[in-house]
Write a structure and sequence with these properties.
Elements lengths: L3 H8 L2 E4 L2 E4 L11 H13 L7 E9 L9 E10 L3 E10 L2 E11 L23 H6 L6 H9 L5 E5 L14 E8 L7 H12 L20 E12 L9 E11 L2 E10 L4 E13 L3
Antiparallel strand pairs: 1-2, 2-4, 3-6, 3-9, 4-5, 5-6, 7-8, 8-10, 9-12, 10-11, 11-12
Helix pairs in contact: 2-5
Length: 287
C-alpha cells in the first residue's frame, strides 16, 4: 500500500444500489483478505445508510470464511431500526455468492451523560520508539523468517510505533501485553466517520498475536496459523487520528485452539476513545 490515500480509496465503497455496495481489496502477501479491511469497509457500508447526525458507538462482527484478495467483496446493508436516539444496521459481506463476514453496528445521536474512563498506561512518548518496520530490521539476522513476515505486512497508510521490542530474543513467559502508538498522515483532514473506519482497520493489527506471547518459548512462530473469528469494537469519545493514539493490548485467555485479544485505545490526553475485543483461531501448521 502506497499511502493513506490508497487505504481511503479501498475503504470507500462503490455504491451499486441504496443498500448494496462493492469494494476492492488491499493486496496482502498472505493472499487472504485482511480482517481489518473488511471491518472498515463494512462500517463504511453501514455509515452510508444512516443519518448524518448519527455516529457509530459499537460494532459486533463474525468472520465466516477467508476472503479472496483477487475478488471484489459485495456488501449488503439491512436496516434493522431507525429510532429516536439509536440507529441499527446489519451488514453482510459476500464473495461468489457465499457470505464471508457479518456485522451489526449501532449509531447514536450525541447526548449528555456521565463520564469516566480507565487510566492510560504510563509509557514513553511516541517519537522515543522505533517504527514497526525499523524494529523489524533489528531481528533481520536473528530470525529471517519472522523478519520477512513482518516486512511483508508493512503498509504506509498508518504509522505504528511499538513500545515493547518484539519478544523473540529476550522473552519472559507470561507477558501477554503490548502497547503500540499509531497515527495517520497529519496532512489529511478526515471526517469522524472515516476516522472510525480507519481505526477499525488499525484495530486488527497485532491484537490476536498477543495471545501467543506467553507461549513464545514453546512454539515456532513461523509455523503458526492465525485467523480472526469475531471482532467487537466500541467508540467512546471523539478523537483525532492525525495525532498519536496508544493501543494498549493484552490477552486475558487462550484455550481450545483459540486466543483472545483485548485492546484499549487512548488519545494523547489519556482519554479512552475505543475498546476492542477479538477472538481468533490459533493452530500450528502441519508440515
Amino acid at each position: 500500500m502506497k499511502d493513506l490515500n490508497e487505504l481511503i480509496d479501498i475503504i470507500s465503497l462503490e455504491k451499486i444500489d441504496d443498500c448494496l455496495l462493492r469494494g476492492n481489496n488491499y493486496q496482502t502477501s498472505w493472499k487472504r483478505v485482511f480482517g481489518g479491511q473488511v471491518l472498515a469497509q463494512a462500517l463504511n457500508a453501514a455509515y452510508s445508510t444512516v443519518p448524518k447526525d448519527r455516529i457509530a458507538h459499537s460494532l459486533h462482527s463474525y468472520f465466516i470464511l477467508s476472503g479472496d484478495v483477487d475478488l471484489p467483496i459485495i456488501y449488503q446493508v439491512e436496516t434493522i431500526r431507525d429510532g429516536g436516539s439509536f440507529t441499527t444496521r446489519r451488514v453482510k459481506a459476500s464473495q461468489k455468492g457465499k457470505v464471508i463476514f457479518v456485522m451489526a453496528a449501532s449509531f447514536q445521536l450525541r447526548q449528555d451523560g456521565f463520564d469516566h474512563h480507565i487510566d492510560r498506561p504510563k509509557v514513553g512518548e511516541p517519537k522515543s520508539f522505533m517504527t514497526d518496520i525499523e524494529q523489524a530490521e533489528t531481528i533481520k539476522d536473528l530470525s529471517p523468517k519472522i523478519y520477512q513476515r513482518l516486512k511483508s505486512r508493512h503498509q504506509n497508510a498508518i504509522e505504528f510505533r511499538p513500545v515493547e521490542k518484539y519478544p523473540f530474543e529476550d522473552f519472559m513467559s507470561g507477558n501477554a501485553e503490548r502497547n503500540v502508538w499509531m497515527k495517520t498522515d497529519p496532512t489529511h483532514e478526515l471526517s469522524l466517520a472515516m476516522q472510525h473506519q480507519l481505526l477499525a482497520f488499525a484495530s486488527d493489527y497485532d491484537l490476536l498475536m498477543t495471545s501467543l506471547y506467553p507461549h513464545n518459548n514453546k512454539v515456532d512462530m513461523t509455523k503458526m496459523f492465525l485467523a480472526s473469528l469475531d471482532h467487537a469494537m466500541w467508540f467512546h469519545r471523539d478523537f483525532d487520528f492525525k495525532d498519536w493514539l496508544l493501543y494498549a493490548i493484552n490477552s486475558p485467555s487462550a484455550s481450545n485452539s483459540r486466543g483472545m485479544g483485548y485492546g484499549s485505545i487512548f488519545d494523547k490526553k489519556g482519554r479512552l476513545v475505543s475498546t476492542v475485543m477479538q477472538e481468533g483461531l490459533i493452530r500450528t501448521i502441519r508440515s
